[in-house]
Amino acid sequence: MFGLMQQEELLISGLIDFAEKNHGETEIISRRVEGDVHRSNWAQVAKRSRQIANALHAMDLEVGARIATIAWNGYRHLELYFGVSGTARVLHTINPRLHPDQLAWIVNHAEDQVLCFDLSFLPLVKAIHTHTPTVKHWIALCDEDQLPKDTGIEGLQCYESWIGQHTDHYEWPMFDENTASSLCYTSGTTGHPKGVLYSHRSTLLHAFGSALPDVMNMSARDSVLPVVPMFHVNAWGLPYSAAMVGAKLVFPGPALDGKSVYELIEQEKVTFAAGVPTVWQMLLSHMLPLKAQFSSLKRTVIGGSACPPAMIEAFKSEYNVEVLHAWGMTELSPLGTLCSLKNKHNLLSPEEQMKIRLKQGRSFFGVLLKILDDQGQPQRHDGKSYGDLYAKGSWVIKKYFKEKDSALIDGWFPTGDVATIDEDGYMQVVDRTKDVIKSGGEWISSIDIENIAVSHPHVAMAACIGIPDPKWDERPIVVVVKKPNTALSKEELLAFYEGKTAKWQIPDDVIFVDAIPIGATGKILKTKLREELIQPQH
Questions:
Q1: What is the residue-averaged pLDDT of the chain?
Q2: Residue 63 has what DSSP assignment?
Q3: What is the pLDDT of residues 119-178, one digit of tens each?
Q4: Domain boundary residue among 255, 272, 292?
Q5: Of these four, 45, 126, 199, 289, which has the most CB atoms within 10 Å of its CB?
Q6: What is the dihedral of CA 393, 395, 401, 406, to 10 degrees?
Q7: Beta 223-226 vs 248-251: how paired, if at all?
Q8: Sign of dihedral through CA atoms 505, 506, 512, 514?
Q9: Which of 128, 177, 119 shows the shortest CA–CA distance to 148?
């Protein structure tokens, strides 16, 4: 027997329709590539999304055609989010921080037919356009008078002229909610990147889940600043959740330095922000010397890599901003866990609460997690037993784009992380499987080693890697960038570890460098560090 209820397809077009009808005047603020601040709202985004839909139809693109973007966070990019997917075509957001050869490979693998880009990425597009034969239409996200002449890109169009010649009258089509909606590629630190193809259903369920009170707690009362790029796993789904709840969106464009981000937060009364630790480090570095304060910011989600305890403490003690630790992956749309406290934790001391906040958090309805040992046996959820982390759920990958084989093992996705899960469901990443250091048969968490280093007042950034050792197989070393105008010796930093971790886990060496290599998604490139520091020893 089936229930006797209506069944509506979960489609992205439903989000923008809802936002227009119920939150049409709510602002969408964008700092543009041009340097000015553009003011729009959900009603205007909806109308222009429908113009995009008509413009795509005029191009005679088939259902499922891939439309690529190489763009910063802004209102035009947001319009493409809805205008492309709403027509049953696929939005393909591309990370511009990748090498041009890798970008061309991704465009060709996706078989993109249209590529829309911000003018600041024109040199990048010029470098790849002759190597991407599937792209038939090139669209610069700009006004007509800003379109450069003699770019060498045949048929290059201006976005405003492209959509401007079309009406905003459009009836969004109805189709199966399992239809593909957007495509993101993994960063591809080893081998070629892999495509993760999201559906309308998975995207909306992810938006529902991430907006929950125990997750990102988003509402129409929020002013949301996604510092996380829209080309990085769809800005963690924030554009979709914001439309779902009718929140104000504030886009930073290309200006991600501490001063610019702080000014935008204050000008637009941002209550909630999201980004990777490196961005927040720049923000804190700008604010601390000026003794600046936030007038509106209440919470921030930090993900992408483990957040140093010192950063969580600084946000809380200096600015009364709650830091919500998050964990996820491109393959998880991306959210898997978020660290919010339970009712029973309210009575704990700040020190005890901090121990919980340092974990990556609890999964929420829609995601299941488990940990297995090397023999594939389930490990206890006691906060101590660790193993390989697996995930399954309504917005977790099943198979990579164009791959024949399933990405799953017995129905579960292997995340590549090593983790613990405690009795309350709080997951803590011990390390990446490829980064964990095995010394004398025991595991050493490179994340723990890095967190201790970064808590030293003279350390700006740290990365821990394992180096070969004839007796112990591997031993940890820590690579450190010092804060400007500070003095710190190897002996001082190693002494700083005493009492904070077991003696056998203290690094064997400290290497001071001017900079640590950062990848396209803001994560430390440990593969490159290993190449630079280990290979010369052989």
A1: 93
A2: T
A3: 999 999 999 999 999 999 999 999 999 999 899 999 999 999 999 999 999 999 999 999
A4: 255
A5: 45
A6: 0
A7: parallel
A8: positive
A9: 119
Does residue 222 lie within any of the structural domains? yes
Tokens of 504: 């056998």
Locate 287 and state its tokens.
Answer: 């604010």
Q: With respect to residue 124, please indicate whether it lies within any of the assigned structural domains.
A: yes
Task: Reply yes or no on whether 486 is catalytic.
Answer: no
Say which of 313, 318, 443, 527 is annotated catalytic.
443
Entry pTM: 0.85
Catalytic residue among 79, 160, 268, 331: 331
The yes-or-no answer on residue 527 being catalytic is: no
At 151, the amino acid letter reads T
User: Which CATH number fits the domain that encloses residue 28?
Assistant: 3.40.50.12780
> What SS3 string covers 200-221?
HHHHHHHHHHHHCCCCCCCCCC
**Could you confirm whether 278 is annotated as catalytic?**
no
Whether residue 35 lies inside any domain: the answer is: yes
Whether residue 334 has a cis bond before it, omega within 30° of 0:
yes
Closest CA to 338 of 444, 241, 455: 241
**For the CA atoms of the chain, what is the radius of gyration?**
23
CATH assignment at residue 456: 3.30.300.30
User: Which of 238, 255, 272 finishes a domain?
Assistant: 255
**Cα angle value 212/215/217 (rounded, 5°):** 55
Quick one: which of 364, 415, 427 has its CA closest to 390? 415
Q: Report which of 101, 110, 114 is spatially closest to residue 155, judged by C-alpha positions.
A: 114
Q: Which helix (H) or strand (E) holds 482?
A: strand 473-482
Instruction: Please indicate, yes or no, if residue 459 is contained in any of the structural domains.
Output: yes
Active site includes 438? Answer: yes
Among 136, 438, 483, 500, the active-site one is 438
Total domains in the chain come to 2
Q: Which of 26, 69, 132, 186 is catalytic?
A: 186
